[in-house]
Write a structure and sequence with these properties.
This protein is mainly alpha-helical. It contains 14 helices and no strands. α3 packs across α4.
Length: 261
Amino acid sequence: MSNGVTIGQAAAFVGVTVKTVRHYHKLGLVEEPERDSSGYRRYGSADLLRLVQARTLAAAGVPLAEIGALLDADAARFAAALVDVERQLTERIEELAVRRDTLHRLGDGNRALLPDRAVALLERMPGLGFTAEEVAAAREGLVLARALVPEGFDDHLAHVEHALRDPRFVALSKRAAECAAWEPDDPRIAELATAMADHYLASPAQLKIVTGLQARTESATRYEMIARHGEEEAPAAARLATLVEARLRAAGVRIPGPRPR
């Protein structure tokens, strides 16, 4: 290095192109060395260090227009600037990690829409005897709850997780799913509504499955979208939900009133 290296060798050492080195010269980030007796510009260690600093800061996202001032700053200011650049890089790394995780989740429709905890709940349901159609309906309800009342979703999920440990709740839920195939005037619907309402009233923690989301919003419209999803195709299920809610209201439970139909 007694005579320095050529611009091509300097570019290779730094990891950039000759064109980039010349661009740095043009911007004033790195001064061009004097030519030697052979007419070549020779880059010494100080020049190479400046090139490495400029390239590293540029790669870290520092605008080229700001790099010159940083390189010319005193040691304390330069060190502080490096700390700030590191912080920004950390934030970018975290953001990219989130994007990578989202990309991986796209291969699984459930994970693209729901957090792992909700997916785990859905995966438990077949083992409890729920059919594929019933799991799909539960998935739809969870997606709606997360989209419409995101601030209450984690609590709602916790209430459902707890309730699924109760065999009585599971049995009533399966029976409610079965009633979708009944006629709307089937007398069993009223009996099931009474059993469900009584169970909820005797289990305050499980009652929050019904009341928890609506307590987070004053919008009866949003509540009904979540509570009544899929009922257009199942009039019997709509009647069951209406009867359950009526019995709960009669017991003093606050639930948004039905809209005119």
